[in-house]
Design goal:
Number of helices: 1
Structural class: mainly beta
CATH architecture of the largest domain: Sandwich
Strand content: 35-45%
Number of strands: 16
Low-confidence stretches: 1-30
Largest sheet: 5 strands, mixed
Mean pLDDT: 84
CATH superfamily of the largest domain: Immunoglobulins
Number of domains: 2
Distance between the termini: 135 Å
Radius of gyration: 46 Å
Length: 231
């Protein structure tokens, strides 16, 4: 009798256990299962944060005037905090100038046919995502106004040894923009001259010196230098 009752109790416990398991099972299956990846229990569907792009910077002040037959160059300063590769572009670039898309350099030498006004030139730089621009600027190509300098002197009357100078044949004028190198020469084979106009001088500071020459081609020492400013 005792053994039978124990048997029935065990059966009842088993039945209750099955009922409990059956009742809980549907609720558990109704809940969405979380996706667990290999990253320490983090959800696989979580998006990774994208790094924000820093735009490039561009600066510089180009010259607004260039003389004809003079070299012009402007190179802007550009940087990118992200270290991205930069590409430069230009709008309304003057036809006499070249443009380097890798450095942003604008350079060239205008000639007399290019004299005029060039407006609304704009240089920009891009890192592929963002663009920076310089303010639009103008360039005036101006013509060279050639000037002249008039030299006057007193003819020499003596040789260096004090004897009278009787065989003066003419003069030589040396001149240039570097006082240490008077690279231009004018021959004056007329001993009667006391003045001469040096023409077609570009805007600059010019330096002049003279010598006298006798019939044998002997040349005196250079005179003191004279300065002529044609700017």
């Amino acid at each position: 009798m005792t053994g039978r009752s124990r048997f029935n109790l065990l059966c009842l416990a088993a039945v209750l256990l099955c009922v409990v398991n059956f009742a809980i099972s549907p609720d558990v299956s109704a809940k969405p299962k979380k996706d667990v990846g290999s990253g320490g229990g983090k959800a696989l569907g979580k998006s990774r944060k994208t790094k924000e792009n820093s735009p490039p910077s561009l600066s510089g002040t180009p010259d607004g005037v260039v003389l004809e037959n003079s070299f012009y160059e402007f190179v802007p300063s550009a940087s990118d905090r992200d270290g991205d590769a930069l590409t430069f572009t230009i709008n309304n670039g003057p036809g006499w100038a070249d443009f380097d898309p890798t450095t942003g350099a604008l350079y060239g030498t205008p000639d007399a046919a290019d004299v005029g006004h060039y407006s609304a030139i704009q240089i920009a730089v891009s890192d592929g995502l963002s663009t920076a621009e310089l303010p639009a600027f103008d360039i005036d190509v101006t013509s060279i106004t050639l000037a002249s300098v008039t030299l006057q002197w007193q003819p020499p009357t003596e040789n260096t040894d004090g004897t009278p100078l009787t065989d003066l044949a003419g003069y030589r004028i040396y001149y240039g923009v570097d006082p240490a190198e008077l690279s231009s020469l004018i021959e004056l084979p007329n001993p009667g001259l006391t003045t001469y106009v040096v023409e077609e001088l570009t805007p600059s500071t010019w330096y002049f010196a003279m010598t006298s020459v006798n019939d044998q081609g002997q040349e005196s020492d250079l005179s003191n230098q004279l300065i002529g400013d044609t700017r």
